Write the C-alpha cells for this entry.
Amino acid sequence: MTIAQTTAPVGTPIKDGLSALDRYGKLNRPDLSYTAEVAEATAPIYQKVKHIIPEIEWPALAPTIHAINKLKKERNAVILAHNYMTPDIFHGVADIVGDSLQLAIEATRTDADVIVQCGVHFMAETSKILSPEKTVLIPDMKAGCSLAESITGADVRALRERNPGVPIITYVNTSADVKAECDICCTSSNALQVVESFGVDKVFLIPDKYLAANVGNKTDVEVLTWDGACEVHERFTAQELRDYRKIEPKVKIIAHPECPPEVVAEADFAGSTAHMIDWVKTKQPEKVMMITECSMADNVASETPEVNFIRPCNLCPHMKRITLDKILDTLLEMKDEVVVDPVIADKARVAVERMINLKI
Ligand code: SF4
C-alpha cells in the first residue's frame, strides 16, 4: 500500500534542517522485566482490561506499558488512540481515545510537544494539519487505509472539472492532499448535516460509496460519490446478520455506516464509532453485536462488563500494525515523523475547520 505523498521519507530533515531524532535525541532502551514496581504501577490498568486480557498475559505486556507511560512524560508526548486500537494500547497507554477527528481536535488542546498517533496515516496527517507546531509521529509508517488510498487530490480536481458547481464533501478518512481539494470535511457522525448544510439538490460525498449511499437514503439531496470502500466494513453481509439473529434472537445489532446499506438496514441502530459506544453505554442491552472493527467491541466490553458482546470479528490489518513495541520504539528513537506540505496543510485545514465551525 502506498502512503500519501505529503509524507517526507523517514529520516528526511524536515524542521530547521533537523529530523525529529536530531531535535529530541535517542534514549536508551529501558529494562523490560516484570518487577514488583511494574506490577504495582500497572495494577489499576489491569483492572480495566481484566475481562479482555488473561492474567497470565499481563507480565508480558505490563513492562512495555509502564515504560511507555514513563517515556511519555520525558518526551512531553501525548498518545492518541483510535477506537480500533487493541485494549493494551487503548486502556494501557492512551491519553486521548476516540474517532480520528475527536483525537485531532483534543490534541490541539494539550500542551504536549509530541503527538504519537496510534491509528492510521491519514489520522496522523489530520493531527498535523490541526497542530502544525507539534511533532507528530506514527509507530508504523505503513499503516494505511483502503478508503484513504482510493482517491487522490488529482482525482478530486478532475471530478470538480467535470462537475462544476457541485460541492465536494470529503469523509475525514482521506489524505491531506484530498482534503485540500475539497470544500468541507465530514465524519460519519455529521455527514447528513454537512450534506444538507449546502442547501443544494446535489453534492459529492467522497470517497466511501457506502457512507454516501447510507446518507443518501436519509435525505432528498442527491448524494454522488466515489468508488471507495472500507475493506473491513464492506465484508459484512445482510445474510450474515440474519443468520446471527436466528442463533441469538435477543441480540441487538449496531452497525457502522461504512457498511453496505443492506447491512445497515438489518441493524437495530447505525452510527459512528462514538455513537455506537454511547448507544451501548446508554441502552445497556443484554446482548449486543457491533458490526465494525473487532477491537472496538473489546474496548467497549472492558467498560460495560454486564453487556454480553457477540463478536463477528473483522480486523483492520492497517490499524493492527500499531503495537506496544512499536510505540515504545517510536518514543525512544523519535522516528517516523509525519509531515504535511504547509501549502497543502493550510488548504486542508480550511476544509476541516469549516466542518468544525458548522457546530453540528
Ligand atoms: S477500518 Fe477501514 S476505514 Fe478504518 S483504517 Fe481500516 S480500512 Fe481504513
Summary: The chain is about 40% helix and 10% strand.
